[in-house]
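job 3f2a | input accepted
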Amino acid sequence: MTPFDLMKAKLTRRAFARSALIPVAALALAPMMTPAMSQPKQGGVMTMSLDPEPSILVSALNSASPVYVVSSKMFDGLVTYDKDFNLIPRLATAWTVSDDGLTVEFKLRDGVTWHDGKPFTSEDVQFTFMEILKKLHPRGKGTFANLQSVETPDAHTAVFKLAAPTPYLMRALAGAESPIMPKHIYKDGDPMRNPANTAPVGTGPFKFGEFVRGSHLLLQRNENYWDKGKPYLDQLIIRFIADSASRAAALESGEVQYGAQYVVPLSDVARLGKNPTLEVSTDGWEYNTSVNYFEFNLRKPQWQDVRVRQAIAHAIDKDFIVKNIWHDFATAAKGGPVTIKQSDFYTDDVPQYEFDLKKAAQLLDEAGYKAGPDGKRFSATIDYSPSGDTFRQTAEILRQNLAKIGITLTLRAQDGPTYVRRVWTDNDFDLNIYSVSNIADPVIGIQRLFWSKAIQKGVAYSNGSSYSNPEMDRLLEAGMVENDPEKRRQIYKQMQQIAMTDLPTFPIVYIDWFSIYNKKVKGLNTTALGLYENFSDVSIEE
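job 3f2a | predicted structure (542 res):
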Protein backbone atom coordinates (compact mmCIF):
# COMPACT_ATOMS: atom_id res chain seq x y z
CA MET A 1 0.00 0.00 0.00
CA THR A 2 1.43 3.35 -1.04
CA PRO A 3 1.08 6.59 0.94
CA PHE A 4 -1.38 7.67 -1.75
CA ASP A 5 -3.56 4.70 -0.74
CA LEU A 6 -2.99 5.43 2.91
CA MET A 7 -4.26 8.96 2.45
CA LYS A 8 -7.60 7.53 1.33
CA ALA A 9 -8.03 5.56 4.51
CA LYS A 10 -8.15 6.54 8.16
CA LEU A 11 -4.85 8.07 9.21
CA THR A 12 -3.15 6.00 11.87
CA ARG A 13 0.20 6.12 13.59
CA ARG A 14 1.21 2.87 11.89
CA ALA A 15 0.11 4.09 8.47
CA PHE A 16 2.01 7.32 8.70
CA ALA A 17 5.06 5.68 10.17
CA ARG A 18 5.05 3.31 7.19
CA SER A 19 4.66 6.17 4.71
CA ALA A 20 7.38 8.17 6.43
CA LEU A 21 9.84 5.31 5.96
CA ILE A 22 9.26 4.92 2.24
CA PRO A 23 11.61 7.74 1.12
CA VAL A 24 14.33 6.36 3.42
CA ALA A 25 13.84 2.85 2.06
CA ALA A 26 13.93 4.17 -1.48
CA LEU A 27 17.25 5.84 -0.79
CA ALA A 28 18.61 2.66 0.77
CA LEU A 29 17.67 0.64 -2.30
CA ALA A 30 18.93 3.20 -4.82
CA PRO A 31 21.80 1.94 -7.00
CA MET A 32 25.29 3.22 -6.34
CA MET A 33 26.66 5.73 -8.84
CA THR A 34 28.84 3.97 -11.39
CA PRO A 35 31.17 5.42 -14.04
CA ALA A 36 28.50 4.69 -16.65
CA MET A 37 25.99 6.76 -14.69
CA SER A 38 27.35 10.27 -15.11
CA GLN A 39 26.94 12.86 -12.40
CA PRO A 40 24.72 15.78 -13.52
CA LYS A 41 26.79 18.69 -14.76
CA GLN A 42 27.22 21.51 -12.27
CA GLY A 43 26.70 25.07 -13.46
CA GLY A 44 25.10 26.66 -16.45
CA VAL A 45 22.01 28.72 -17.13
CA MET A 46 18.60 27.54 -18.24
CA THR A 47 16.17 29.96 -19.85
CA MET A 48 12.47 29.14 -19.88
CA SER A 49 9.49 31.07 -21.18
CA LEU A 50 6.33 31.92 -19.28
CA ASP A 51 3.12 33.69 -20.19
CA PRO A 52 1.37 35.58 -18.79
CA GLU A 53 3.74 37.40 -16.51
CA PRO A 54 2.86 36.68 -12.86
CA SER A 55 1.44 39.54 -10.83
CA ILE A 56 3.24 38.37 -7.68
CA LEU A 57 5.83 35.66 -7.03
CA VAL A 58 4.37 33.89 -3.98
CA SER A 59 1.92 31.01 -4.51
CA ALA A 60 0.69 31.07 -0.91
CA LEU A 61 -1.22 34.22 -1.87
CA ASN A 62 -2.17 33.57 -5.51
CA SER A 63 -2.83 30.19 -7.13
CA ALA A 64 -2.52 31.29 -10.78
CA SER A 65 -0.32 28.89 -12.73
CA PRO A 66 2.44 31.42 -13.57
CA VAL A 67 2.76 32.23 -9.86
CA TYR A 68 3.08 28.52 -9.02
CA VAL A 69 5.81 28.14 -11.63
CA VAL A 70 8.07 30.83 -10.19
CA SER A 71 7.22 30.47 -6.49
CA SER A 72 8.03 26.76 -6.43
CA LYS A 73 11.66 27.44 -7.33
CA MET A 74 12.19 29.74 -4.34
CA PHE A 75 10.05 28.10 -1.63
CA ASP A 76 10.03 24.61 -0.16
CA GLY A 77 7.06 22.68 1.18
CA LEU A 78 7.07 20.13 3.95
CA VAL A 79 7.11 17.32 1.36
CA THR A 80 6.87 16.62 -2.34
CA TYR A 81 5.54 13.58 -4.25
CA ASP A 82 6.91 11.03 -6.67
CA LYS A 83 4.83 9.95 -9.65
CA ASP A 84 3.02 7.32 -7.59
CA PHE A 85 2.30 9.95 -4.93
CA ASN A 86 4.73 8.46 -2.43
CA LEU A 87 5.87 11.19 -0.07
CA ILE A 88 9.39 12.62 -0.40
CA PRO A 89 10.78 14.66 2.53
CA ARG A 90 11.58 18.32 2.01
CA LEU A 91 11.41 20.64 5.03
CA ALA A 92 9.82 17.81 7.00
CA THR A 93 11.99 14.72 7.45
CA ALA A 94 9.43 12.48 9.22
CA TRP A 95 5.77 12.52 10.25
CA THR A 96 3.53 10.50 12.56
CA VAL A 97 -0.15 10.64 13.44
CA SER A 98 -2.09 9.78 16.57
CA ASP A 99 -4.39 6.76 16.71
CA ASP A 100 -7.47 9.00 16.56
CA GLY A 101 -6.16 10.84 13.51
CA LEU A 102 -6.39 14.23 15.22
CA THR A 103 -2.70 14.97 15.77
CA VAL A 104 0.01 14.97 13.11
CA GLU A 105 3.58 15.59 14.23
CA PHE A 106 6.22 16.73 11.75
CA LYS A 107 9.93 16.57 12.45
CA LEU A 108 11.59 19.45 10.63
CA ARG A 109 14.93 19.57 8.88
CA ASP A 110 17.74 21.03 10.98
CA GLY A 111 20.21 23.59 9.67
CA VAL A 112 17.94 25.15 7.03
CA THR A 113 18.21 28.91 6.53
CA TRP A 114 16.12 31.44 4.69
CA HIS A 115 17.73 33.20 1.75
CA ASP A 116 18.50 36.16 4.03
CA GLY A 117 20.43 33.90 6.43
CA LYS A 118 17.79 33.69 9.18
CA PRO A 119 17.15 30.18 10.56
CA PHE A 120 14.06 28.24 9.50
CA THR A 121 12.08 26.97 12.52
CA SER A 122 8.74 25.51 13.51
CA GLU A 123 7.51 29.07 14.12
CA ASP A 124 7.58 29.58 10.36
CA VAL A 125 5.44 26.47 9.85
CA GLN A 126 2.93 27.58 12.47
CA PHE A 127 2.68 31.07 10.97
CA THR A 128 2.38 29.78 7.41
CA PHE A 129 -0.52 27.44 8.04
CA MET A 130 -2.48 29.44 10.60
CA GLU A 131 -1.99 33.00 9.32
CA ILE A 132 -1.36 32.62 5.58
CA LEU A 133 -2.70 29.38 4.12
CA LYS A 134 -5.89 29.09 6.22
CA LYS A 135 -6.80 32.73 5.71
CA LEU A 136 -5.42 33.88 2.36
CA HIS A 137 -4.68 30.92 0.10
CA PRO A 138 -7.43 30.41 -2.53
CA ARG A 139 -7.79 26.76 -1.51
CA GLY A 140 -6.63 27.02 2.08
CA LYS A 141 -9.99 27.82 3.62
CA GLY A 142 -11.22 24.39 2.53
CA THR A 143 -8.00 22.38 2.60
CA PHE A 144 -7.09 23.41 6.14
CA ALA A 145 -10.58 23.91 7.57
CA ASN A 146 -10.00 21.11 10.10
CA LEU A 147 -6.64 22.50 11.21
CA GLN A 148 -7.30 24.07 14.62
CA SER A 149 -3.76 24.89 15.69
CA VAL A 150 -0.08 24.21 15.10
CA GLU A 151 1.97 23.68 18.24
CA THR A 152 5.72 24.27 18.31
CA PRO A 153 7.24 22.36 21.26
CA ASP A 154 10.72 23.02 19.89
CA ALA A 155 12.39 24.66 16.91
CA HIS A 156 12.25 21.50 14.79
CA THR A 157 8.86 20.02 15.69
CA ALA A 158 5.47 21.18 14.43
CA VAL A 159 2.34 19.48 15.77
CA PHE A 160 -0.87 19.86 13.77
CA LYS A 161 -4.08 19.64 15.84
CA LEU A 162 -7.13 18.69 13.77
CA ALA A 163 -10.83 19.00 14.54
CA ALA A 164 -11.48 15.78 12.60
CA PRO A 165 -9.41 13.18 10.74
CA THR A 166 -8.37 14.76 7.46
CA PRO A 167 -7.69 12.11 4.80
CA TYR A 168 -6.40 14.53 2.16
CA LEU A 169 -4.02 16.56 4.35
CA MET A 170 -0.80 14.93 3.18
CA ARG A 171 -1.72 15.56 -0.45
CA ALA A 172 -1.59 19.33 0.06
CA LEU A 173 1.92 19.93 1.38
CA ALA A 174 4.10 20.39 -1.71
CA GLY A 175 6.05 23.60 -2.13
CA ALA A 176 3.96 24.91 -5.02
CA GLU A 177 0.66 24.42 -3.18
CA SER A 178 1.69 25.13 0.43
CA PRO A 179 5.02 26.97 0.48
CA ILE A 180 6.47 27.57 3.92
CA MET A 181 6.70 31.33 4.45
CA PRO A 182 9.18 33.39 6.54
CA LYS A 183 7.41 34.62 9.67
CA HIS A 184 10.04 37.28 10.32
CA ILE A 185 9.19 38.95 7.00
CA TYR A 186 5.39 38.55 6.96
CA LYS A 187 4.36 38.84 10.61
CA ASP A 188 3.77 42.62 10.48
CA GLY A 189 1.25 44.30 8.17
CA ASP A 190 -0.96 42.96 5.40
CA PRO A 191 0.68 39.93 3.72
CA MET A 192 -1.01 40.80 0.44
CA ARG A 193 0.87 44.11 0.34
CA ASN A 194 4.25 42.88 1.52
CA PRO A 195 7.16 44.01 -0.70
CA ALA A 196 8.54 40.46 -0.48
CA ASN A 197 5.70 39.31 -2.73
CA THR A 198 7.73 40.56 -5.69
CA ALA A 199 11.18 39.96 -4.16
CA PRO A 200 10.70 36.71 -2.22
CA VAL A 201 12.80 35.25 0.56
CA GLY A 202 12.40 31.48 0.68
CA THR A 203 14.32 28.34 1.60
CA GLY A 204 14.25 26.84 -1.90
CA PRO A 205 17.08 25.95 -4.28
CA PHE A 206 16.94 29.28 -6.11
CA LYS A 207 17.14 32.80 -4.70
CA PHE A 208 15.48 35.89 -6.07
CA GLY A 209 17.76 37.92 -8.34
CA GLU A 210 15.71 40.51 -10.20
CA PHE A 211 12.17 40.95 -11.52
CA VAL A 212 11.97 43.18 -14.59
CA ARG A 213 8.34 43.73 -15.55
CA GLY A 214 7.68 42.97 -19.18
CA SER A 215 11.01 41.20 -19.56
CA HIS A 216 12.19 38.48 -17.17
CA LEU A 217 12.71 37.05 -13.70
CA LEU A 218 16.26 36.09 -12.75
CA LEU A 219 16.81 33.42 -10.09
CA GLN A 220 20.25 32.64 -8.66
CA ARG A 221 21.61 29.39 -7.23
CA ASN A 222 21.13 29.13 -3.45
CA GLU A 223 24.64 28.15 -2.42
CA ASN A 224 23.38 27.33 1.09
CA TYR A 225 20.56 25.01 0.01
CA TRP A 226 20.02 22.17 2.47
CA ASP A 227 20.18 19.51 -0.29
CA LYS A 228 23.96 19.65 -0.65
CA GLY A 229 25.29 19.87 -4.18
CA LYS A 230 21.97 21.13 -5.53
CA PRO A 231 20.73 22.90 -7.47
CA TYR A 232 22.95 22.10 -10.42
CA LEU A 233 22.11 25.25 -12.37
CA ASP A 234 23.82 28.55 -11.53
CA GLN A 235 20.91 30.60 -12.83
CA LEU A 236 17.34 30.14 -13.98
CA ILE A 237 16.02 32.88 -16.27
CA ILE A 238 12.26 33.04 -16.78
CA ARG A 239 11.39 35.20 -19.78
CA PHE A 240 7.94 36.70 -20.28
CA ILE A 241 7.26 36.31 -24.00
CA ALA A 242 3.70 37.33 -24.78
CA ASP A 243 3.54 36.17 -28.40
CA SER A 244 3.17 32.40 -28.79
CA ALA A 245 4.83 32.35 -32.22
CA SER A 246 7.84 34.13 -30.72
CA ARG A 247 7.98 31.55 -27.94
CA ALA A 248 8.03 28.75 -30.51
CA ALA A 249 10.81 30.48 -32.46
CA ALA A 250 12.85 30.92 -29.27
CA LEU A 251 12.60 27.19 -28.54
CA GLU A 252 13.61 26.27 -32.08
CA SER A 253 16.62 28.59 -32.04
CA GLY A 254 17.80 27.39 -28.61
CA GLU A 255 17.38 30.86 -27.14
CA VAL A 256 14.87 29.28 -24.73
CA GLN A 257 15.43 25.73 -23.48
CA TYR A 258 12.13 24.96 -21.72
CA GLY A 259 8.45 25.82 -21.82
CA ALA A 260 5.18 24.17 -20.84
CA GLN A 261 1.38 24.43 -20.85
CA TYR A 262 0.54 27.30 -23.24
CA VAL A 263 4.13 27.74 -24.41
CA VAL A 264 3.42 27.42 -28.16
CA PRO A 265 0.36 27.38 -30.39
CA LEU A 266 -1.10 23.90 -30.07
CA SER A 267 -1.21 23.68 -33.85
CA ASP A 268 2.62 23.88 -33.80
CA VAL A 269 3.28 21.05 -31.35
CA ALA A 270 3.43 18.25 -33.93
CA ARG A 271 5.87 20.24 -36.07
CA LEU A 272 8.09 21.10 -33.10
CA GLY A 273 8.09 17.47 -32.04
CA LYS A 274 9.91 16.62 -35.29
CA ASN A 275 12.74 19.03 -34.45
CA PRO A 276 15.76 16.83 -33.56
CA THR A 277 16.86 19.23 -30.80
CA LEU A 278 13.50 19.30 -28.98
CA GLU A 279 11.49 16.89 -26.85
CA VAL A 280 7.70 17.07 -26.39
CA SER A 281 6.49 15.28 -23.27
CA THR A 282 3.25 14.83 -21.35
CA ASP A 283 5.21 13.34 -18.43
CA GLY A 284 5.25 14.98 -15.01
CA TRP A 285 1.69 16.31 -14.85
CA GLU A 286 0.28 13.85 -12.33
CA TYR A 287 -0.25 16.59 -9.74
CA ASN A 288 -1.66 19.18 -12.11
CA THR A 289 -4.79 17.63 -13.62
CA SER A 290 -6.66 20.64 -14.98
CA VAL A 291 -10.18 21.34 -16.19
CA ASN A 292 -11.21 24.15 -18.55
CA TYR A 293 -14.39 25.77 -17.17
CA PHE A 294 -17.12 28.14 -18.24
CA GLU A 295 -18.46 30.16 -15.28
CA PHE A 296 -21.61 32.22 -14.71
CA ASN A 297 -21.76 35.24 -12.42
CA LEU A 298 -24.91 34.29 -10.52
CA ARG A 299 -25.17 37.81 -9.11
CA LYS A 300 -26.44 38.86 -12.56
CA PRO A 301 -30.22 38.40 -13.03
CA GLN A 302 -30.08 36.78 -16.48
CA TRP A 303 -28.12 33.80 -15.12
CA GLN A 304 -30.30 33.13 -12.08
CA ASP A 305 -32.74 30.98 -14.08
CA VAL A 306 -31.07 27.58 -14.48
CA ARG A 307 -32.73 27.16 -17.88
CA VAL A 308 -30.62 30.02 -19.22
CA ARG A 309 -27.49 28.36 -17.87
CA GLN A 310 -28.57 25.07 -19.43
CA ALA A 311 -29.10 26.85 -22.74
CA ILE A 312 -25.54 28.18 -22.70
CA ALA A 313 -24.24 24.69 -21.88
CA HIS A 314 -26.08 23.28 -24.91
CA ALA A 315 -24.38 25.94 -27.07
CA ILE A 316 -20.87 24.66 -26.32
CA ASP A 317 -19.54 22.16 -28.86
CA LYS A 318 -16.93 20.43 -26.72
CA ASP A 319 -15.85 17.93 -29.37
CA PHE A 320 -15.19 20.75 -31.84
CA ILE A 321 -13.17 22.61 -29.19
CA VAL A 322 -11.04 19.52 -28.44
CA LYS A 323 -10.25 18.99 -32.12
CA ASN A 324 -9.82 22.53 -33.39
CA ILE A 325 -8.62 24.51 -30.37
CA TRP A 326 -6.84 21.99 -28.14
CA HIS A 327 -5.64 19.85 -31.09
CA ASP A 328 -6.41 16.72 -29.08
CA PHE A 329 -4.35 17.81 -26.05
CA ALA A 330 -7.62 17.57 -24.12
CA THR A 331 -10.64 15.32 -23.67
CA ALA A 332 -14.22 16.54 -23.96
CA ALA A 333 -15.71 16.76 -20.46
CA LYS A 334 -18.46 14.14 -20.41
CA GLY A 335 -18.51 13.96 -16.62
CA GLY A 336 -18.55 16.41 -13.76
CA PRO A 337 -15.95 18.89 -12.51
CA VAL A 338 -13.58 16.11 -11.41
CA THR A 339 -11.24 15.28 -14.30
CA ILE A 340 -11.31 11.84 -15.86
CA LYS A 341 -7.68 11.42 -14.71
CA GLN A 342 -8.83 11.33 -11.07
CA SER A 343 -10.37 7.89 -11.39
CA ASP A 344 -11.15 7.63 -7.68
CA PHE A 345 -13.69 10.43 -7.89
CA TYR A 346 -14.58 10.81 -11.56
CA THR A 347 -18.14 10.03 -12.68
CA ASP A 348 -20.06 10.52 -15.91
CA ASP A 349 -23.33 9.68 -14.13
CA VAL A 350 -24.34 13.34 -14.26
CA PRO A 351 -26.77 15.43 -16.33
CA GLN A 352 -25.48 15.75 -19.89
CA TYR A 353 -25.66 18.84 -22.11
CA GLU A 354 -24.98 17.78 -25.67
CA PHE A 355 -24.32 20.44 -28.29
CA ASP A 356 -27.83 21.34 -29.48
CA LEU A 357 -28.63 24.91 -30.53
CA LYS A 358 -32.30 24.08 -31.09
CA LYS A 359 -32.58 22.85 -27.50
CA ALA A 360 -30.71 25.94 -26.30
CA ALA A 361 -33.18 28.26 -28.07
CA GLN A 362 -36.12 26.32 -26.63
CA LEU A 363 -34.78 26.70 -23.08
CA LEU A 364 -34.32 30.45 -23.57
CA ASP A 365 -37.92 30.73 -24.78
CA GLU A 366 -39.13 28.81 -21.73
CA ALA A 367 -37.14 31.13 -19.46
CA GLY A 368 -38.88 34.17 -20.97
CA TYR A 369 -35.99 35.37 -23.11
CA LYS A 370 -37.80 35.24 -26.44
CA ALA A 371 -36.15 36.57 -29.58
CA GLY A 372 -37.23 40.03 -30.72
CA PRO A 373 -38.08 41.04 -34.30
CA ASP A 374 -34.36 41.35 -35.00
CA GLY A 375 -33.71 37.87 -33.62
CA LYS A 376 -31.88 39.24 -30.56
CA ARG A 377 -32.62 38.14 -26.98
CA PHE A 378 -30.00 39.86 -24.78
CA SER A 379 -26.30 40.69 -24.69
CA ALA A 380 -23.48 39.77 -22.32
CA THR A 381 -19.73 40.17 -21.91
CA ILE A 382 -17.34 37.26 -21.53
CA ASP A 383 -14.00 37.55 -19.77
CA TYR A 384 -11.36 34.89 -20.30
CA SER A 385 -8.05 33.95 -18.76
CA PRO A 386 -5.07 35.59 -20.47
CA SER A 387 -3.08 32.36 -19.91
CA GLY A 388 -2.81 31.19 -23.49
CA ASP A 389 -4.77 31.49 -26.72
CA THR A 390 -7.13 28.59 -26.01
CA PHE A 391 -9.36 30.64 -23.72
CA ARG A 392 -9.81 33.44 -26.25
CA GLN A 393 -10.44 30.93 -29.01
CA THR A 394 -13.04 29.09 -26.91
CA ALA A 395 -14.76 32.39 -26.12
CA GLU A 396 -14.84 33.22 -29.83
CA ILE A 397 -16.47 29.87 -30.70
CA LEU A 398 -19.06 30.47 -28.00
CA ARG A 399 -19.69 34.00 -29.33
CA GLN A 400 -20.43 32.58 -32.76
CA ASN A 401 -22.75 29.87 -31.43
CA LEU A 402 -24.67 32.19 -29.10
CA ALA A 403 -25.23 34.64 -31.95
CA LYS A 404 -27.16 31.87 -33.72
CA ILE A 405 -29.66 31.73 -30.83
CA GLY A 406 -29.99 35.49 -30.33
CA ILE A 407 -27.41 36.25 -27.63
CA THR A 408 -24.83 38.92 -28.45
CA LEU A 409 -21.56 38.13 -26.71
CA THR A 410 -18.70 40.64 -26.42
CA LEU A 411 -15.20 39.38 -25.66
CA ARG A 412 -13.11 41.38 -23.19
CA ALA A 413 -9.32 40.97 -23.22
CA GLN A 414 -7.12 42.17 -20.35
CA ASP A 415 -3.85 41.47 -18.58
CA GLY A 416 -3.59 38.96 -15.74
CA PRO A 417 -3.88 41.30 -12.72
CA THR A 418 -6.83 43.17 -14.26
CA TYR A 419 -8.59 39.90 -15.08
CA VAL A 420 -8.14 38.49 -11.57
CA ARG A 421 -9.29 41.73 -9.94
CA ARG A 422 -12.34 42.02 -12.19
CA VAL A 423 -13.58 38.47 -11.56
CA TRP A 424 -12.62 37.73 -7.94
CA THR A 425 -12.44 41.16 -6.31
CA ASP A 426 -14.86 43.43 -8.16
CA ASN A 427 -17.14 40.58 -9.38
CA ASP A 428 -17.65 42.78 -12.44
CA PHE A 429 -18.28 40.13 -15.09
CA ASP A 430 -21.07 38.21 -16.79
CA LEU A 431 -19.32 35.07 -18.01
CA ASN A 432 -15.81 33.74 -17.50
CA ILE A 433 -13.63 31.07 -19.13
CA TYR A 434 -10.60 29.76 -17.24
CA SER A 435 -8.95 26.56 -16.02
CA VAL A 436 -8.52 25.14 -12.55
CA SER A 437 -6.28 22.33 -11.35
CA ASN A 438 -7.92 19.41 -9.55
CA ILE A 439 -4.62 18.86 -7.70
CA ALA A 440 -4.69 15.49 -5.90
CA ASP A 441 -8.04 15.55 -4.11
CA PRO A 442 -11.45 17.25 -4.54
CA VAL A 443 -11.05 19.18 -1.29
CA ILE A 444 -7.81 20.72 -2.51
CA GLY A 445 -8.88 21.16 -6.11
CA ILE A 446 -12.56 21.82 -6.82
CA GLN A 447 -14.17 22.49 -3.44
CA ARG A 448 -13.31 26.18 -3.71
CA LEU A 449 -15.56 26.52 -6.78
CA PHE A 450 -18.76 25.21 -5.17
CA TRP A 451 -18.48 25.81 -1.40
CA SER A 452 -20.38 28.90 -0.23
CA LYS A 453 -17.68 29.57 2.37
CA ALA A 454 -15.23 30.03 -0.50
CA ILE A 455 -17.04 33.17 -1.70
CA GLN A 456 -14.17 35.47 -0.74
CA LYS A 457 -13.57 38.86 -2.30
CA GLY A 458 -10.00 39.26 -3.43
CA VAL A 459 -9.19 35.52 -3.33
CA ALA A 460 -8.41 34.47 -6.90
CA TYR A 461 -9.73 31.21 -8.33
CA SER A 462 -12.21 30.70 -5.50
CA ASN A 463 -16.04 30.71 -5.77
CA GLY A 464 -16.30 33.51 -8.32
CA SER A 465 -19.81 32.56 -9.41
CA SER A 466 -21.19 33.26 -5.90
CA TYR A 467 -22.87 29.85 -5.97
CA SER A 468 -24.53 28.76 -2.73
CA ASN A 469 -26.50 25.57 -2.09
CA PRO A 470 -26.87 24.14 1.46
CA GLU A 471 -26.96 20.56 0.17
CA MET A 472 -23.77 21.14 -1.79
CA ASP A 473 -22.13 22.60 1.32
CA ARG A 474 -23.25 19.59 3.36
CA LEU A 475 -21.73 17.13 0.90
CA LEU A 476 -18.48 19.05 0.55
CA GLU A 477 -18.07 19.27 4.31
CA ALA A 478 -18.86 15.56 4.67
CA GLY A 479 -16.16 14.77 2.11
CA MET A 480 -13.64 16.69 4.17
CA VAL A 481 -13.92 14.30 7.12
CA GLU A 482 -15.08 10.97 5.66
CA ASN A 483 -12.33 8.34 5.91
CA ASP A 484 -14.04 5.41 4.18
CA PRO A 485 -12.89 5.49 0.52
CA GLU A 486 -16.12 4.09 -0.94
CA LYS A 487 -18.33 6.45 1.08
CA ARG A 488 -16.12 9.32 0.00
CA ARG A 489 -16.48 8.34 -3.65
CA GLN A 490 -20.26 8.35 -3.28
CA ILE A 491 -20.19 11.78 -1.63
CA TYR A 492 -18.30 13.28 -4.57
CA LYS A 493 -20.53 11.51 -7.07
CA GLN A 494 -23.56 13.19 -5.47
CA MET A 495 -21.68 16.48 -5.29
CA GLN A 496 -20.96 16.36 -9.03
CA GLN A 497 -24.55 15.46 -9.87
CA ILE A 498 -25.70 18.59 -8.03
CA ALA A 499 -22.97 20.69 -9.66
CA MET A 500 -24.06 19.57 -13.12
CA THR A 501 -27.73 20.16 -12.29
CA ASP A 502 -27.25 23.64 -10.83
CA LEU A 503 -24.53 24.65 -13.35
CA PRO A 504 -22.75 27.52 -11.61
CA THR A 505 -19.83 26.40 -13.76
CA PHE A 506 -19.65 24.07 -16.74
CA PRO A 507 -16.61 21.87 -17.46
CA ILE A 508 -15.63 22.07 -21.13
CA VAL A 509 -12.51 19.91 -21.45
CA TYR A 510 -10.11 17.90 -19.30
CA ILE A 511 -6.66 19.19 -20.25
CA ASP A 512 -3.60 17.09 -21.20
CA TRP A 513 -0.68 19.38 -20.41
CA PHE A 514 2.72 19.00 -22.06
CA SER A 515 6.19 20.47 -21.93
CA ILE A 516 8.69 21.20 -24.71
CA TYR A 517 12.38 21.36 -23.94
CA ASN A 518 15.81 21.21 -25.47
CA LYS A 519 17.29 17.71 -25.29
CA LYS A 520 20.33 19.16 -23.52
CA VAL A 521 18.13 19.76 -20.47
CA LYS A 522 18.15 16.83 -18.05
CA GLY A 523 16.41 16.17 -14.74
CA LEU A 524 12.98 17.53 -15.64
CA ASN A 525 9.75 15.76 -14.62
CA THR A 526 11.37 13.77 -11.79
CA THR A 527 8.28 14.05 -9.57
CA ALA A 528 4.50 14.35 -9.91
CA LEU A 529 4.78 18.17 -9.93
CA GLY A 530 6.59 18.64 -13.25
CA LEU A 531 6.54 22.35 -14.07
CA TYR A 532 5.70 23.11 -10.43
CA GLU A 533 8.72 21.22 -9.05
CA ASN A 534 11.69 23.17 -7.69
CA PHE A 535 14.13 22.30 -10.55
CA SER A 536 16.92 21.41 -8.12
CA ASP A 537 17.56 18.27 -10.23
CA VAL A 538 17.74 20.12 -13.56
CA SER A 539 21.05 20.38 -15.39
CA ILE A 540 22.31 21.40 -18.83
CA GLU A 541 24.39 18.71 -20.52
CA GLU A 542 26.41 19.78 -23.57
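job 3f2a | Residues 3-39+79-195 form a domain with the Dipeptide-binding Protein; domain 1 fold (CATH 3.90.76.10).
job 3f2a | closed
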